[in-house]
Amino acid sequence: MNWLKKQAQEKGKKKFLNHLSFAEVENLVQEQAGRLYPYVKDETRVALYARNSVETVLFFLALQGLQKEVFMINIRLTEDEIRRKLTDLKIGVVFSEDRTFISFQDVLNQPLEKQDERRGGYAPEQIAVIMDTSATHGLAKSVPLRWRNLEAHVQASQQVLGVREEDNWLLVLPLYHIGGLAIVLRSLYNGTAVTLTSGFDEEETLKLIEEEKVNLLSLVPTMLNRILDRIGGHSLRAVLVSGEFIPEALVEASLRKGIPIYKSYGMTETASQATTFCVSEHLMRLKSVGYPLPGIKVHIHNPDNEGVGEIILRGPMVMDGYLGGEPVQEFLHTQDIGYLDEEGYLFILDRRDNIIISGGENIYPREIENILYAHPAVSECAIVAMKDKKWGQVPALCIVSALEDEEIRNYLSARIARYKHPKKIIHLRELPKNSTGKLLKKALGEMVNED
């Protein structure tokens, strides 16, 4: 099974990766595999350290053709963090766009070596890629995804999102996160085009949308929020929005502008999407994060009297277990708290780690954040737990807004119970995020508890 070879044979002249056709990509991948072979012939696992580029995708596909496990290094890690990860994963060969490791250019300067004809297939049990979790709540864990996981994902995603011959997916998310790499894999499997950029740039993104060069987007909420008001004409058929928290105000604003927003819930451990739905087709479920993809089973573990409990998942796209950890036993425990409605749509209340227990009452930060995001003067906000001698924990608010504290308290007083009001308000220029735009609540929690 080789998706690239199949598409090169059936759609050879069709554009796949920016200006390159499927046939051109296959030829380049075969050549690069030949040049890579001397470096990796004795290796099981290697790593890539590079930003988004056509060359990064070509190297990834070439290494897959050589049946190597590829660890995608987060380029925002420090040298010490990278060294520890490589040691832990027993990786001795790393390729990079610059000269930090073995440079792409050094490889391309090597003579072409003829390949073993048996190479080039994607074996279902082969670990294709290793990625770190987003680590927005703690230490990152290494997730191995096998080709059977990736194939299950792209097949299920295809059933939900459909495929059109003219599809062109804009890729602005980092390739070292599953949200970015999944776009390449879906497009490769579907035989459709990808427009790959070096990262998220507002002007470039808006230009591609308005010139109708792309019709599919994957963004995290902070990215969509930065461009939504400026989107004019477009031919978008789906805007996949996922991330830790999708503000209701952002979803409602997208609908008013006629943006075909699809809310999605997933993680590295599930090879991207686990639930998805088109919001405009299910307006009564605007607060949901979607319906399970084909093959995914969603259950609520230890539900309370209202059906609220931990979200657990099972399906062919779910990883077998973290590297160096215990295998997943039947269901993956997500640590997210939520519930299913009568038709099986999933609703998320919050991360278990985010829930604030104040005097025995559960406070869900997302509820308060959604109310604040509905205020036009609030750009960003986050509710985190602050230690309190009397109540154990109380809410603290980190906010990006010109509103005064009294205005914020007055706004909340008419909308939520008093025990949910933030006891401390910290004004910031921006909230800390990781490379995909996900909020780093752990850092904010440490900040509010410094005193």
From TrEMBL:
UniProt-listed SUPFAM superfamilies: Acetyl-CoA synthetase-like
Keyword Ligase found: yes
GO biological process terms on file: fatty acid metabolic process; menaquinone biosynthetic process
Similarity section: Belongs to the ATP-dependent AMP-binding enzyme family. MenE subfamily.
Annotated EC: 6.2.1.26
Pfam families: AMP-binding, AMP-binding_C
Biological pathway: Quinol/quinone metabolism; menaquinone biosynthesis; Quinol/quinone metabolism; 1,4-dihydroxy-2-naphthoate biosynthesis; 1,4-dihydroxy-2-naphthoate from chorismate: step 5/7
Task of the protein: Converts 2-succinylbenzoate (OSB) to 2-succinylbenzoyl-CoA (OSB-CoA).
Catalytic activity: 2-succinylbenzoate + ATP + CoA = 2-succinylbenzoyl-CoA + AMP + diphosphate
Lineage: Bacteria, Bacillati, Bacillota, Clostridia, Eubacteriales
Keywords: ATP-binding, Ligase, Menaquinone biosynthesis, Nucleotide-binding
AMP-binding enzyme C-terminal domain residues: 367-438
Name the record gives this protein: 2-succinylbenzoate--CoA ligase
GO molecular function: ATP binding; medium-chain fatty acid-CoA ligase activity; o-succinylbenzoate-CoA ligase activity
NCBIfam families named among the record's database cross-references: menE
Source superkingdom: Bacteria
Ligase found in the keyword field: yes
Stretches assigned to the AMP-dependent synthetase/ligase domain: 6-323
